[in-house]
Design goal:
Layout (H helix, E strand, L loop, with lengths): L8 H16 L14 H29 L7 H23 L5 H28 L6 H8 L6 H16 L4
């Protein structure tokens, strides 16, 4: 059993830390903050995915138009719509994963994601109209008006062209 005053714990800890700190300094390295990709690199990455998205729009457009043709819709059309839907969904996910930090490019990326979401919606809506369980005159009339993806597909192509024009000539 001890008698007397209690040891001064904070002072003791401070002395210990002062003795150990010089030994720890070489072990602790400060790393510089990571530098993000440059704007041209960001544009290049965005355009690469948009090129694939624009290329995937043609078969998707044909699949939607096939859903609107008069007469019974074939099973092949359903398969094509499903495959195109999967392809566009994957491209949309890849587009969302492009690491853009520039505010203009973030806005362009968000717009491209919305346009691809419209294409996906159009594929689903055309399949719903073409392969309904109980066809009625109103749904049949809407189905026969289907002729492709429409203006949003053109908007996506224009957005890709604007971004591509920004790339330096290589």
């Amino acid at each position: 059993m001890r008698t007397g005053t209690a040891p001064d714990v904070p002072a003791r800890a401070a002395r210990w830390l002062a003795a150990v700190r010089p030994l720890l300094r070489p072990l602790v390295r400060r790393r510089p903050a990571p530098v993000g990709p440059s704007r041209p690199d960001q544009v290049r990455a965005l355009v690469a995915v948009l090129d694939e998205a624009v290329a995937a729009q043609r078969p998707a457009d044909e699949a939607v138009a096939a859903c609107g043709e008069p007469g019974p819709v074939s099973r092949g059309t359903a398969r094509d719509c499903g495959q195109q839907s999967i392809a566009l969904h994957r491209l949309r996910a890849r587009l969302q994963d492009v690491g853009t930090t520039d505010p203009d490019l973030v806005a362009a990326q968000a717009r491209a994601v919305r346009l691809l979401a419209y294409d996906l919606w159009m594929l689903r809506a055309s399949m719903n109209l073409a392969f309904t369980v109980r066809p009625v005159d109103r749904t049949e009339a809407a189905r026969l008006r289907l002729n492709g993806l429409g203006r949003p597909a053109d908007d996506l192509r224009r957005l890709r062209d604007v971004l591509r024009a920004e790339l330096p000539e290589a």
